[in-house]
Design brief:
157 residues; 7 helices; 0% strand; 434 Repressor (Amino-terminal Domain); mainly alpha; 2 domains
Length: 157
């Protein structure tokens, strides 16, 4: 499941419409719907806006699906008691983790695509061999089977 799909789970959980969420976070109207329709990735800038505007949302869950959707109450309560500089540091750290996880995800995705392409090439080669063998056996059948119309029948005595 992609981050955009998890974000929609969060929006549904909050009981709000995507357009309201877009306004709250500062996204353009219809952005999330387009991203969901295209099954596209959320960019770094969008993730930063979401993390800053939804402090109860777990960044790890949003990006990877690991853990719980919401941070536990203690984390949220502690976050409200922290001064602005510390909050900015926490946000920066969370964003850095997002970026690192996103890079790891992209690397894994690229590696998977590479292996899939290699496997497709192997399967295509195997298919061509099987096809060639099938064509050869068909040609041999025509050589081995006589054309009955050209064979004279010898009458029985």
């Amino acid at each position: 499941m992609k981050a955009i799909e998890r974000l929609y789970q969060y929006i549904d959980f909050k009981g709000i419409k995507a357009i309201s969420f877009e306004k709250k976070v500062g996204l353009s109207n219809g952005y999330l719907g387009k991203q969901l329709k295209r099954s596209a990735d959320l960019g770094e800038g969008i993730l930063i806006k979401i993390v800053r505007n939804c402090p109860e949302l777990s960044p790890d869950w949003l990006l990877t699906g690991n853990g719980e959707m919401l941070k536990n109450d203690i984390e949220s309560e502690n976050l409200s008691n922290i001064n602005k500089d510390d909050k900015n540091k926490l946000y920066s750290d969370a964003i850095s983790r997002f970026i690192n996880m996103s890079a790891s995800y992209d690397e894994m995705k690229d590696e998977l695509i590479h292996y899939q392409r290699e496997r497709i090439k192997e399967l295509e080669k195997h298919f061509d061999q099987v096809k060639s063998t099938a064509e050869d056996s068909t040609n041999l059948r025509f050589v081995a089977e006589p054309e009955t119309q050209y064979i004279k029948t010898i009458p029985k005595k």
